[in-house]
Amino acid sequence: MPDEQMAGAGSAPAVPGGVTGSPPVPSGPPATPAPPPRPLDSIDRSIMRLLQADGRASIRSVAEQVHVSRANAYARINRLIDDRVIRGFTARVDHERAGQGASAYITLKIVQNSWRTVREQLRELPGAAHIALVSGDFDVLLLVHTPDNRTLRELVLTRLQSIPEVLSTRTLLVFEETDLLDTGTPPPPPALPDDPEPT
Q: From CA 87, how far away is CA 101, in angstroms rounded?
């Protein structure tokens, strides 16, 4: 059976947001290769920061904060979506308040050239939040959220270590985490777009 070690520490990566009034972003993997990236200017980067902090911000609010017209803001957001700079819109969740009180980063050593196979199996794990192929002393970094330590232990010792390509794992418990995009205030309730889309 693969080796399993326990350790503590860690902080979770932040999650991007969305925008009220913007076109829907397709879910799942893209059907065609992404276009080559275009350079982003300071306004594009400001728009991305605003949307990461408040995914439900209206076009009008974004435009006012970056000092451009609503049509300009709308066009820029569309371009960021079309260029796949913005990959989707979602909510940032307090996992402990959502009933997922145990979080951990898990490092994996895997069989050479088995990354794609392992990645697809890791996608199916309950509570899996982030998967990365990395360099260094291990091959894969996995972030998971589970209801409690018993469930986490079961996930590691039963589900993860039953994957034939996984040679060993090490679990890093998350004691406390800080979302660097968290503004510290609860988001406002959902609202309808406050302006029509440009034609």
A: 28
